[in-house]
């Protein structure tokens, strides 16, 4: 383990002139970014063969710090851009970094259709339960009773289980992990990158400055330790007996199947059309 | 009644029969203690002996202390071995071996032990590899003075070299086979019967390796053949902290398992107790600002610090 970690220096994958990054002190997104870069390092993916597409929000800004081909797109649409990119350039590893609001609210429709097509894209959804950059509004994953700027009396909407949504929509690979367990998160992202179809990875991250402060969850170390006490292993996955509850989320690989990948089918159909036109 | 008839009576009494051969097999849950004792018990039964085997399992689970008593002979009464009665003590872990030493016959007992150490969490005072321990500190030479005949085998490394670390127990079984006069072919048949089908080849190789290792070690009868436990490679952890990137979030300070970091006057993380740092990299991994990089500088002959 030591030698494995010793060879990875995250600074080799960062745009150092952009550092230090704009994230608040203790933000979990930085840890998630490290896990992604570590997974790319482990798989020896060439930076020139890597395309990172991101939307708007705190998570959306992460692509700017990666020393690779990066694309900062419109709000909620990184999957739409990534779909076009992956169809046109099947030689690239396309990674999407998106936040919970970006991916589930504004871009919810793009997510379910990306899952349905099962195109080879790795989608990282960094879930911090809030719209952090815009001032802390309620998001589709905010747990019930949590305080936000738009729910001053506590959120009374039920929240989304993004992994269940992705599975139901047909994603080939679905997994969830917390930022506390960095090597495990790295292994999960690695498995997602190796999956031949659409891989959806939900990373449970912490928003310390907006969400944590408003809900009295302590500072960043306390929030990270909270992950340990509240996240259950995948053995306790949601069943009828233990329904979805934001504080007992299953982690690990939740779905993995070999549904046909869309890109190959698309290229076959396109080649057939071209051949027909040539006659 | 003549005196001769009284004298004749004890000749058939059980107390006068040759006492059973006692083998005590100990280790840590998950190493294969029960498997070794099963092979031995089955083989002894096959050779026509009465066998009694009693073991502790289940309660100890993985990582706990596990032992198994195997007694075989013409007639066996008690299922357990009393203190000072074991003919052979086979230990799959160093500290477990020391724990059970008093059970060995003081004058003739044979001690066969793997030098592998599995330190329980509550005995782990210092996680630096190679750091001196306050737990089972006896060296192989010291143990040699306690026992009549002793073999400290680095069975785990030997099994690793064969390609399967889990065959270490069979290496020790091979070592044990020298102490008993059962034919080698019978041993190998029994081992092949008990190990998973896919691992028969590697286990038979492990058995032969253990058997020849002890046979070779026995050859120069003059001195007690003992090898020392391998010393873990020592290194000095060094933290490279980028003060310009640190945002004083306190994660590294609060989550360091050794509590060796602190925020300095400028509210920048710094290594306050370098002697406690074990180089576990948790601070590097959890730093959201990529400000910490842990280097493990190789340090030849350096000693870790005991607390």
UniProtKB/TrEMBL annotation, chain A:
A Pfam family in this protein?
Answer: TPP_enzyme_C
- List its EC numbers: 1.2.7.11, 1.2.7.3
Q: Where is the Thiamine pyrophosphate enzyme TPP-binding domain?
A: 60-203
Molecular function GO terms recorded: 2-oxoglutarate synthase activity; thiamine pyrophosphate binding
Q: Which domain of life is it from?
A: Bacteria
Sorted UniProt keywords:
Oxidoreductase
- What is the top EC class of this enzyme, as a single word? oxidoreductase
SUPFAM superfamilies in UniProt: Thiamin diphosphate-binding fold (THDP-binding)
Which GO terms of type biological process are on file? cellular respiration; small molecule metabolic process
Database matches in Gene3D superfamilies: 3.40.50.970
Q: Which InterPro entries match?
A: 2-oxoacid:Fd_oxidoreductase, THDP-binding, TPP_enzyme_TPP-bd
Write down the PANTHER family for this protein, in alphabetical order: 2-OXOGLUTARATE OXIDOREDUCTASE SUBUNIT KORB-RELATED, 2-OXOGLUTARATE SYNTHASE SUBUNIT KORB
The protein here is known as: 2-oxoglutarate ferredoxin oxidoreductase subunit beta
Organism annotation: Rhodopseudomonas rhenobacensis
Automatic annotation (TrEMBL), chain B:
* All residue ranges annotated as the 4Fe-4S ferredoxin-type domain in the record: 237-266, 267-297
A single MF term (Gene Ontology): iron-sulfur cluster binding
Q: Which UniProt keywords apply?
A: Iron, Iron-sulfur, Metal-binding, Oxidoreductase, Pyruvate
Answer yes or no on keyword Oxidoreductase. Answer: yes
Q: Where does the record locate the signal sequence feature? A: none
EC class name: oxidoreductase
- Gene3D superfamilies named among the record's database cross-references: 3.30.70.20, Pyruvate-ferredoxin oxidoreductase, PFOR, domain III
* Enzyme Commission designation: 1.2.7.8
One Pfam family of this protein, by short name? Fer4
Q: What is this protein called?
A: Indolepyruvate ferredoxin oxidoreductase beta subunit
**What's the source species for this entry?**
Rhodopseudomonas rhenobacensis
